[in-house]
Amino acid sequence: MAYDVQRNLNKSTNQSYTYDAIGHAEDISPILTNITPELTLFYSKFGDSEPAKAMNFSWMTKGLFPPQDNAHLEMEDYKFQPGGSIEGLSNNVQFFQKTGMVSDAQNKVQKAYQNEHGSELADLRYDAYTGLAQDIEYMLVNSTNKVDGSTTVQPRSGGVPFFMQQNLIDVTVSTTDNTITSSTETHLATGDICYFIADTMPTGLKDGLYYYVRVDSVNSKKLTIFDTQKGAIENIEDDQATLSAAGTNVKIVTNNVLSLGKKRTYTLDDINNAMEMTSKRGGHPTQAYMSSSKYREFIKLVLATMTSTRKGNEKADATEFATSYQGAFGLINANVHPIYPDNRIDILDLSYWDMKYLDKPHEVSPEKLSKDGTYEKFVIEASLGLKGTQPKASCSIVDIKR
């Protein structure tokens, strides 16, 4: 096992004092990510942002805008328009702890085995390092919500699913003027993409197919839907979707999260559709994370599209190549994650995901843990959250059938 710091793994004089104990590190954050990198794929790969200064941390991100039609006269006066778009995002800091204790008698009793790290307490401390890293990874993989803390409620950080879930907004469909009006601001720009879900889809729209929007110049919640980006930008009537029936419980999806409604497993077309939405917003994700069963399906899907023989009569083992897929919108590398659920695949641009620390993982000084019984004890703690700086640079397929 390689470490970022030089550590003494010989038997310590005792574990009660820092200068006699073993298992300490200047900063155990690298130690945590190096202990089990195969189990902590996110924690080992996500960046390290500037420290948090509050329990709820916020950041501003620039919007990803589609291209626009741009043509001017040879001689004309400049016309100035406001530019740029900033969106605020936030998450919470979550507290993590791992504790352990060993009785004085347990430390003294002769063992039939040799302590791997020099003492019973040192072994437990090492296991706590591993456990803390895995607990942080669990949050990153599974947490769908951020929770504000109180004196009786533990604050929780949202993980990747918190940022990569469908942004659903209720809409009403008008068949008289062929428009859709959202219940809240969609923050979409003319030429941007979206798609719709509904109990009954409006006639003129297809389930799972993305469309382009033209935002009304007066009412930003009023949208006209087009089949092409050119049609939306240039307001081409022939490219406009005709809405002849309103449908029921219609919602607009404004981000790159494709839901399969728990009706089927995923296909390469689904991956391409999700990647296309990201690409049209300027994103370039490359790393796909999935469960072992979905990883096996990925290999089968890719193998079905490629030739499995090499030159001559020798058969090729193409499985090693099938872990990557060159689609129409970029190269994707598939990664099996040991604790990933079967119902989602996240395709991420890792440059937009950072850890936000209020307090990096560390061991509480033994001097702060007074000996108040016939045992020795330790505490490893951390406080941190996830910062997804630009979720629209990534994409996801959710609600996949097992």
From TrEMBL:
Pfam families: SU10_MCP (PF17236). InterPro entries: SU10_MCP. This is DUF5309 family protein.
